[in-house]
From TrEMBL:
The lineage of its organism: Bacteria, Bacillati, Cyanobacteriota, Cyanophyceae, Leptolyngbyales. The keyword Cytoplasm does not apply. Its cofactor is pyridoxal 5'-phosphate. This is cysteine desulfurase. PROSITE patterns: AA_TRANSFER_CLASS_5.
Length: 383
């Protein structure tokens, strides 16, 4: 029996062979601790980490000293949000974010709210974009941080982070963006976009799981954050813990490939997405969630009227691997908070699926997926 077609690339991606190739020597031959400065095993690992830091920094217009390695985007988000709050609470205790953020942003904000911080959660328009006219008046004298993701993990919507960064910069407010879904897929430049903190991860762009990074601006203005892990003072005191050289090398290679192949990958995935959408929208009662064009090339999120959501996923699982939303919250029996924030009715939110087309999908798979989707929907509607 053949495996289902993998169309869940926003959840995670397979490691690209080119990424795996550069990682393998650091599991075996160059296995030293990058902090071991007295012998060649440590020097080799330290040199690889240094090269990787430079590659990642170049991809986003940063300086290598502004990159701190973490275990992934969730840790990077926590470090950014809680780190700024703890370091700058004397200046203000107000933070602004958006209702459609990943829970790795919303949950740290809720935690800070329990400690006495005030959190403003901005609504979004029906297409998932933040309303800039509501953002500007939400900024106050005691606002210390704004956190808005670059690309949404469920609906793929690309937020106007350049305009948001400018609004924050003009008011002396730190701007953080969760770029877990965006890095290597859209152009990012922390200088041009006035980004002060940026969270990154490897496993959404064909790199290994368990590694990410946080960009922390050190120039004009210098951002200070309080560490959330203590012990050893690694990463200039921001994140203690032995650096995972194989994963760091993999993160850098994945980002390097993403930037190099961005135009080619996006053009091909956009064509596949349009191919899929053209076929499934022929079904009555199928609606697109999110902005039709201002979204990731490989993202398609749809609601299907007249079917039960779990039955739809169960009916499709032998044909394709897709999800109903964030993999981090898929166990919860409740509609997507992203779709709810957009005003999608609960009945349709429950009956929504997310297709995540990736680098290795091909046109025949898309045709097979569309046929299986139509067959399953028609079967469920027939009762």
């Amino acid at each position: 029996m053949s495996k289902p077609i993998y169309l869940d690339a926003h959840s995670t991606t397979p490691v690209d062979d080119r990424v795996l190739e550069v990682m393998l020597p650091f599991f075996t031959e160059h296995f030293g601790n990058p902090a071991s400065t007295t012998h060649e095993y440590g020097w080799a690992a330290e040199s690889a980490v240094k090269r990787s830091r430079a590659i990642i920094a170049a991809a986003i217009g940063a300086d290598p000293t502004e990159i701190a390695f973490t275990s992934g985007a969730t840790e990077a988000n926590n470090l950014a949000i809680k780190g700024v709050a703890e370091a700058h609470h004397s200046r203000g205790r107000h933070i602004v974010t958006v209702a459609t953020e990943h829970n790795a942003v919303l949950d740290p904000c809720r935690y800070l709210e329990s400690l006495g911080f005030e959190i403003t959660i901005l609504p979004v328009l029906s297409d998932g974009l933040v309303d800039l006219e509501k953002l500007e008046p939400a900024l106050r004298d005691d606002t210390i941080l704004v956190s808005v993701m670059a690309a949404n993990n469920e609906i793929g919507v690309l937020q106007p982070i350049t305009q948001i960064g400018q609004l924050c910069h003009d008011r002396g407010i730190f701007f953080h963006t969760d770029a877990a879904q965006a890095i290597g897929k859209i152009p990012l430049n922390v200088q041009q976009q006035n980004i002060d903190l940026m969270s990154l991860t490897a496993h959404k762009i064909y790199g290994p799981k368990g590694i990410g990074a946080l960009y922390v601006r050190r120039r004009n203005p210098r951002v200070t954050i309080a560490p959330q892990l203590h012990g050893g003072g690694h990463e200039r005191g921001m994140r203690s813990g032995t650096l995972a050289a194989p994963q760091i090398v993999g993160l850098a290679k994945a980002i390097e490939l993403g930037v190099e192949l961005m135009v080619e990958d996006n053009a091909r995935m956009l064509a596949l997405r349009d191919q899929l959408w053209q076929q499934i929208q022929a079904l009555d009662g199928v609606s697109l969630n999110g902005h039709p064009t201002q979204r990731l090339a490989g993202n398609l999120n749809v609601s299907v009227a007249g079917v039960e959501g779990n039955a739809l996923l169960m009916g499709l699982r032998s044909a394709m691997a897709i999800s109903s939303g964030s993999a981090c919250t898929s166990a919860k029996i409740e509609p997507s908070h992203v779709l709810q924030a957009m005003g999608v009715a609960d009945e349709l939110a429950f009956a929504s699926v997310r297709f995540g087309i990736g680098r290795f999908n091909i046109a025949t798979e898309i045709d097979q997926a569309a046929q299986a989707f139509a067959s399953t929907v028609n079967h469920l509607r027939a009762g």
